[in-house]
Amino acid sequence: MKYYLLFGPPGAGKGTQAKLLVEKYNLRHVSTGDLLRREIAAKSELGLAAKALIDAGNLVDDSIVEKMIENEIDCNPAVPGFLFDGFPRTVAQAEALDALLAKRGESLSKVISIIISDSLVFERIAHRAAIEGRKDDSNPEIIENRIKTYHQKTELLVSYYKERGKYFEIDGEGTIEDIFKKISDLI
Ligand code: AMP
After folding, report:
1. How far apart are alpha carbons 130 and 126 in whole angstroms?
2. Ligand 1 atom with the shortest distance to the CA of 93
3. Which of 78, 84, 158, 184 is surrounded by the most beta carbons within 10 Å?
């Protein structure tokens, strides 16, 4: 089983690339953001608890997303691999993922990091707001908070994965096709 991780700030293009990659490699796309938005739409208890945090651009509890990931892996035993998008976002989540895979005698295949500048993050998210209508995309203060959260909590994972020899970087400022080709070469 292959386990790939698409890494990068909000607006880096992870979702766009994930859609193309899962089609090409028949991987199971697991976006914790999408799973959480589904819970919100269904008005589940979990969704109601997560909504205020997401709308403010804060992270939800590690234990919530860790359970979602475990459930996805458990429920899809026959897929050739997984593509995680937006998970892990904290060192605790990365450790939980390592432990979860180790329990199965497996490990992460590669972390593919899409690098873009903060100013392009802003531009991309503003553009997406007009298309997808996400509440957390439509307010500059919330976008700022998400970028800050990325730098404070998620960027620590760069050294975490470099130390483990899993980390590969891609320049995220080219065309969708260019970036897709570079990621495909890594996979
Ligand atoms: P995304 O669609 O990946 O941008 O995620 C949207 C929002 O969902 C984030 O701003 C967080 O509030 C929440 N979220 C998604 N994935 C995670 C995660 N792995 N850990 C904590 N919160 C998450």
Report:
1. 7
2. 19
3. 84
